[in-house]
Amino acid sequence: MGTSYKRKAAYVTIGAAVVLLFRSIYGFYYVPKSLRHLPCVGYRELAYSIMKREDAATRARSVLGQAIKEKNGAFVAKFPMEWTVFLTSPRTIQAVLLKSDKFPKTYDMFHALGESSPFVKFLGIKNVGFSNGDDWKRQRKVMNPAFQRSVPVEMFGKLMQKGILAIEKQGYEVRALDFFERITLDSIGIFLFSFDFGSLDNPNSVWSLTYDTIRRGIKNPALTVFPQLDCLLKYVTPGRRHLDQCVTKLNNLLMEVAKEKRRQVQSPSDKLIPDSEKDLLTLILEAELRGDGSASDEELRGNLALFFLAGHETTASAMCFCLYNLAMNKDIQEKARKEVLEVLGDEPVDVRPDIQDLKQFRYMDMILHENLRRFGPAAMLLPRKSEEDFVADGILIPKNTPVVIDLNTMHHNPQVWKDPEIFDPERFAPGGEYEANGEKMAWLPFSSGSRVCIGKSFSMAEQRVFLSMLLKKYEWDFPDDSIHRDGIKMENFENNAPESLSFRFHPRY
Ligand code: HEM
């Protein structure tokens, strides 16, 4: 009797497990009724493309090619965890971005990762990039004035002079991502809280190594596809424990900096320092003292972490791709150099451009725009969720549906851009393709609307300074053994520049 009871119980358990398994597999193929009006892209294809580290352009052509032709570029996919609407056309995207209060960012990913994940521990969920509603408004208000003051063009120029020395030291053959990540990390540290990581001078400095461990550790593609894995990883991978230690160490430093700055701005000596010499954190805290918004110490710490992550790799990657595009297109490199020499002169000395010089680099701006279209570092915006039924350019997005604005697919959507794979700065010339097609939202590497990137002017100025100084000083091409000579070989799914991309610089003086 006892044995047959046990056997029955075992059958029931196995049966239940099989049903649950089938239900969860079926869940990946069964599109909810409310979303069946949109074409569906399979989970397997999308996950495979990401795990294979396929770049966004290839994905737009292969996996998404048919789906984005149909309903104004909108499609659905169960990805990463829920059925989500992906938008890839300027008008549907515009409709959503202009109503950002109806599409708050979701916390589903953070919940899936769990509070103990290094990603959540480092960035928190209360920073300006992740929060919504009044929490977001309060923080953004306190930051806006600090970001709106003039950008630190002189500091960028001084860092590139150091960069030029570093290129010489490395024998003129340079691993681009490593170089630009170091220079942009030093730049963001000085800009944020007058902290020199010194990574250009010393790549092994303690803080740059600590930060490097964190940013690499939290960008694991497997966690994008299966965020729930994180709670297992901490028990099985030794590197994960080191990562936790690094997060704690840098968090403590950032918290200490936030508290110390708060003490400084309240002291009388702060009033003696001119605004132009103050770092961003000081300006934020002063705005708070004036009553323009507020941020707690933990929010400040999370924001500093976010600024590092959002503000250094993005620009570094954009610069690498820019140099790549100019190495592939020598005529465009030469035309850009001609413009730079007209503004900065052709004497055999390094010149640091000032803000007036930057305004004259019109052709360079077209290059930077096209580069960000072709290889925008933010492949997608963070997921949002619709608060009510919403119609975006004729496409119904039902209430409570996760929505992803897929920037890179839009930038490579042949319905939006002619021959999207071709690098052609003339698209952004007056009267060129971009102006002529009248779709303002077809170019959105920094997003748009109230949640537009707060560091856009900072990054664009930084790119103009770095590129102009490099164009004046060097011509560049690929080393003979480069694997990128016949087209870029991407190494990651986020559209970041490949680590193996190197350039050979030829000094002009
Ligand atoms: C090429 C360089 C950059 C690109 C392509 C870029 C792109 C973006 C994009 C697309 C967003 C919108 C994200 C979303 O809504 O889901 C964003 C937001 C943000 N970016 Fe950037 N970014 C760049 C540089 C920077 C820099 C230099 C900083 C800081 C110094 C920065 C700080 C931020 C912050 C704080 C937000 C959140 C703004 C908010 O939600 O109010 N970014 N960025």
Structure description:
This protein is of the alpha+beta class and 509 residues long. The protein has two domains: 1-30; 31-507, Cytochrome P450 (Cytochrome p450). The chain has helices at 2-29, 43-51, 56-61, 90-97, 108-113, 118-123, 133-148, 153-169, 176-193, 206-217, 221-225, 230-236, 238-265, 280-289, 297-328, 330-344, 355-359, 362-374, 407-411, 433-436, 456-473, and strands at residues 75-78, 83-87, 173-175, 384-385, 390-392, 395-397, 402-405, 474-477, 502-507. Strand 5 and strand 6 (395-397) form a beta hairpin. The longest helix has 32 residues, at 297-328. The structure holds protoporphyrin IX containing FE. Protoporphyrin IX containing FE (HEM) is lined by residues 128-129, 140, 306-307, 310-311, 314-315, 318, 376-378, 381-382, 445-447, 451, 453-455, 458-459. Protoporphyrin IX containing FE binds next to helix 15 and helix 21. Keywords: Heme, Iron, Membrane, Metal-binding, Monooxygenase, Oxidoreductase, Transmembrane, Transmembrane helix. GO terms for molecular function: heme binding; iron ion binding; monooxygenase activity; oxidoreductase activity, acting on paired donors, with incorporation or reduction of molecular oxygen. It comes from Absidia repens.
Topology:
Blueprint: H1 2-29, H2 43-51, H3 56-61, E1 75-78, E2 83-87, H4 90-97, H5 108-113, H6 118-123, H7 133-148, H8 153-169, E3 173-175, H9 176-193, H10 206-217, H11 221-225, H12 230-236, H13 238-265, H14 280-289, H15 297-328, H16 330-344, H17 355-359, H18 362-374, E4 384-385, E5 390-392, E6 395-397, E7 402-405, H19 407-411, H20 433-436, H21 456-473, E8 474-477, E9 502-507
Parallel strand pairs: 2-7
Antiparallel strand pairs: 1-2, 3-9, 4-7, 5-6, 8-9
Bound molecules: protoporphyrin IX containing FE (HEM).
